[in-house]
């Protein structure tokens, strides 16, 4: 063997290098197998949460092989084992697996699906249902379900809104759902329609009768008897009065209409000339049991008056003759005093009118041209027939009759029941007027007994008491129908 020392040294170096290489390969194999060079990239950590109802996205989770002794990595394919149901809140375990050189490496993660989904509210709709405005909405039905809590129907809160119902429900995680049902019952909302004018001007009326109203919806349902009427008119006190007609339903919705009634005590049409200072006492609804007494009192004071007569008390019809012969004026009032009939139509009116004329003719041998409307020409009782007062007043004047209202209301048909109070009301009404037409009723004893005091006061204060004739001031009220 001629192996030199040099050769021996070279062989020893090669052996050492091979050994080192084997050692390195062995170490690398150990590292591969233990996985220290397979790393998982978990930006949200090994436990993370996702919101329910959203798509489960784990594309940010990655695995790679880290090249030893470098900062470089080789991406590895990643497999997910396990399932996350994003629609069902809860905890899910999943494992990510990455293989390198046929050796699998795993990473365990816990994914919590948070309940972020509001419950679902379902509204039942009955196609045949028609909401009634007055009765209010009757619930057609609803359901509420939640992914986490299940059936929440009995937790639904209901709120009535204007023309709508709002349903709200919350789940145990605090997610709230609200749905609104729009109700067309406003379409069925009735309208209150006033009979007659919304603004009435009345003058010294004995009483106020509301012309009435209707409350009907688009389907023709009549709610009139459910209307609430608030406000009163004191026909004895000048002023402006407001009457409110309203209808409220179960939901608190209201519809209303308003009427303004102005009561005037003076300024009722034509006035006498200043020097006249005249009082025209007028007595309606008689003659009756007190008419003879009244005629005696008038005679005693040399006073003249006017009687607007009826046929209500035939046994006293003879008083018409007596009054006429004593120089008082006789006028037509009404035979029946039945507002509902005489103002229902012209035929009924003139039938009643002519019956009274005949009564007067039978007693006096004359037909009268003087007339007083039952309730006055401004009465609101005639609203049974719209416009009839306007037509009748014109017809009567066209035929040569003269109708008379009044500008002093004695109150004897308006709550006063004593002779003194009636006399005081008349005196109060006449004081300061040059021309007074006083409304009284001679079928009321206390009103007749009030006359003497009025006559004394009038004569002491320079008034003359005259009977109305066709030349007298009409003292017309404002016709409101
Ligand atoms: Zn009358």
Description:
This protein has 481 residues and is an alpha/beta fold. It has 4 domains: 35-114, Immunoglobulins (Immunoglobulin-like, Sandwich), CATH 2.60.40.10; 120-182, Immunoglobulin-like; 191-264, Immunoglobulins (Immunoglobulin-like, Sandwich), CATH 2.60.40.10; 278-465, Glycoside hydrolase/deacetylase (TIM Barrel), CATH 3.20.20. It is built from 9 helices and 27 strands. It has helices at residues 5-34, 291-301, 318-325, 339-342, 346-364, 388-398, 419-430, 445-449, 451-460; strands at residues 38-41, 47-51, 62-66, 73-76, 78-81, 90-100, 103-114, 120-123, 142-146, 150-151, 157-161, 164-170, 176-182, 191-194, 199-203, 213-216, 228-230, 239-248, 254-264, 278-284, 305-309, 329-332, 370-371, 402-403, 408-409, 435-441, 464-465. It is rod-shaped.
Work out the helix count: 9
Q: Kindly give the count of domains.
A: 4
**CATH architectural designation of the largest domain:** Alpha-Beta Barrel
- Please report the first level of CATH classification, the CATH class of the largest domain: Alpha Beta
Tell me the radius of gyration.
52 Å
End-to-end Cα distance, whole Å, is: 153 Å
What portion of residues is helical?
10-25%
């Amino acid at each position: 063997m001629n192996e030199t020392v040099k050769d021996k040294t070279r062989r020893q170096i090669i052996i050492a290098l091979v050994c080192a290489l084997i050692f390195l390969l062995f170490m690398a194999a150990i590292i591969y197998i233990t996985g220290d060079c397979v790393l998982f990239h978990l930006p949200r950590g090994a436990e993370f949460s996702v919101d329910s109802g959203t798509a489960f996205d784990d594309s940010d989770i990655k695995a790679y092989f880290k090249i030893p002794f470098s900062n470089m990595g080789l991406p590895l394919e990643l497999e997910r084992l396990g399932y996350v149901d994003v629609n069902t809140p809860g905890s899910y375990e999943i494992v990510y697996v990455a293989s390198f050189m046929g050796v699998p490496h795993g990473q365990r993660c816990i994914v919590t699906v948070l309940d972020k989904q509001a419950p679902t509210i379902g509204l039942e709709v009955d196609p045949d249902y028609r909401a009634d405005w007055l009765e209010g909405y009757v619930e057609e039905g609803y359901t509420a379900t939640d992914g986490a809590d299940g059936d929440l129907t009995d937790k639904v809160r209901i709120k009535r809104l204007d023309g709508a119902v709002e349903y709200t429900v919350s789940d145990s995680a605090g997610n709230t759902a609200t749905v609104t049902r729009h109700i067309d019952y406003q379409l069925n909302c009735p309208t209150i329609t006033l009979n007659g004018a919304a603004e009435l001007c009345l003058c010294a009326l004995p009483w106020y009768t509301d012309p009435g109203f209707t409350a009907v919806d688009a389907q023709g349902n009549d709610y009139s008897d459910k209307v609430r009427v608030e406000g009163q008119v004191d026909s004895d006190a000048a002023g402006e009065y407001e009457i409110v007609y309203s209808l409220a339903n179960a939901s608190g919705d209201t519809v209303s209409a308003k009427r303004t009634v102005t009561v005037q005590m003076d300024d009722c049409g034509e006035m006498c000339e200043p020097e006249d200072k005249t009082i025209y006492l007028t007595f309606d609804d008689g003659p009756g049991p007190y008419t003879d007494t009244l005629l005696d009192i008038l005679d005693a004071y040399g006073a003249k008056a006017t009687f607007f007569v009826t046929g209500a008390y035939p046994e006293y019809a003879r008083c018409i003759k007596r009054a006429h012969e004593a120089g008082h004026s006789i006028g037509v009032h009404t035979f029946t005093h039945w507002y509902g009939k005489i103002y229902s139509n012209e035929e009924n009116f003139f039938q009643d009118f002519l019956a009274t004329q005949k009564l007067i003719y039978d007693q006096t041998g004359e037909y009268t041209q003087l007339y007083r409307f039952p309730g006055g020409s401004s009465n609101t009782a005639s609203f049974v027939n719209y416009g009839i007062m306007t037509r009748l007043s014109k017809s009567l004047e066209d035929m040569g009759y003269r109708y008379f209202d009044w500008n002093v209301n004695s109150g004897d048909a308006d709550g006063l029941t004593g002779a003194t109070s009636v006399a005081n009301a008349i005196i109060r009404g006449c004081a300061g007027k040059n021309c007074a037409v006083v409304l009284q009723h001679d079928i009321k004893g206390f009103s007749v007994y009030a006359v003497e005091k009025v006559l004394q006061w009038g004569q002491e204060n320079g008034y003359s008491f005259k009977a109305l004739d066709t030349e007298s001031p009409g003292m017309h009220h404002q016709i409101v129908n």
